[in-house]
Write a structure and sequence with these properties.
The protein has helices spanning 8-42, 44-54, 73-79, 88-113, 122-162, 174-205, 207-218. By secondary structure, it is an all-alpha fold. Helix 1 (8-42) runs antiparallel to helix 5, helix 3 runs antiparallel to helix 4 and helix 4 (88-113) packs antiparallel against helix 5. It is elongated, with a radius of gyration of 23 Å. The model is unreliable at 1-6 and 51-56 (pLDDT under 50).
């Protein structure tokens, strides 16, 4: 009986297919995180100059403290989905949505009571700023990181399969089973600030560009006050 051999050409086809799958899965998240990192680095000097004055200002607990990670609760829940009871995933979305709503309400209240807008238009302008916070949070806390971590996990699964550690193996073992989850979780700290900055610039170029002229008409002109 002749032994069945896999030709070099067939192996190269498989390798190319795997490389294409990984590249395709990584393309968009790489653009998101890479663009955010570039924007952060370009603002580095400006942030250092402003840091001394910012020390005396109010700290935004929803965006400048560890509470920011509460917005990633749904990504953590999705990453752990294969390892935990089913109720954990919807509960993690509840935590993330609660965080998003809390930040939205916080920004609305601060705009309403900050004394920045004229009395007759303060509610409308506060709503505009609240919507700004809501859209930013949905992008920076849910959509962008959710898609990024999903793709990271998918790439890990593809590579493990290509190495023969999952397909055709009855019991890959707990470490192999959990490896995509752990890699997804380990990714979170590295993408938070770049994706936040990416969402910030995206808002500046879209929603804020449209809403800013209206907000300026609401502002109190302290220079011309009697």
């Amino acid at each position: 009986t002749k032994a069945r051999l896999t030709s070099p050409s067939s192996l190269s086809v498989v390798d190319v297919a795997i490389a294409e799958a990984v590249a395709s899965a990584a393309a968009v998240p790489t653009i998101f995180v890479g663009a955010g990192s570039f924007l952060l680095s370009s603002k580095g000097e400006e942030k250092e100059e402003e840091s001394s004055s910012a020390d005396d200002g109010e700290v935004d607990i929803y965006r400048d403290t560890l509470l920011r990670y509460a917005g990633y609760a749904n990504e953590v829940g999705e990453a752990f989905a294969p390892l935990v009871p089913a109720v954990v995933v919807p509960a993690s979305y509840g935590v993330a949505i609660t965080y998003v709503i809390a930040d939205t309400v916080d920004k609305f209240r601060k705009s309403l009571s900050g004394g920045k807008y004229m009395q007759g238009a303060s509610t409308k302008c506060a709503i505009i700023e609240g919507v700004d916070a809501l859209i930013w949070q949905l992008a920076a806390s849910v959509a962008l990181p959710g898609y990024t971590i999903h793709q990271v996990v998918a790439i890990t699964v593809t590579l493990l399969s290509a190495m023969g550690l999952t397909d055709g193996v009855e019991e890959p073992g707990p470490i192999i089973d959990a490896l995509p989850t752990f890699i997804g979780l380990a990714t979170i700290p590295f993408i938070v600030k770049p994706l936040d900055e990416f969402a910030e610039v995206g808002m500046d170029l879209t929603y804020r560009k449209l809403s800013m002229p209206f907000l300026e008409t609401c502002e109190i002109d302290f220079d011309n006050m009697p």
